[in-house]
Amino acid sequence: MTVARRKKMKIKKTRRISSKIVKRISRPRKKILASMPTKEEVFGTQQVMIEKAKFSHAEIARPYRPIPQDLPAGYGEDKIILQVRDPWWIYAYWEVTSGALDKLRGRL
Questions:
Q1: I need a surface site. Which of 31, 32, 86, 99 has the fewest CB within 10 A?
Q2: How far is Cα 21 from Cα 25, in angstroms, rounded to an integer?
């Protein structure tokens, strides 16, 4: 038997075997899925319930607060806020009530 003939026979044999395997694998999907056990059968009902609860979050009841339509002109507090953005920038905002301004003017 020549080398070429052996290769040809190997190829034919390989094709025959692979076609049998493909026929076995390509059964209708429904039959395969129907024969597979469910998660409950494999892990048990308790385990499946724990798995579902693991990633669910309870709804938090938050009190209803009406949102104001317009921002107020002031909040009635004397304060200065400095926020550092980086070593070269500082963001500042403040509110000074008229009573505090009158006190400071009186001290001058």
A1: 86
A2: 6
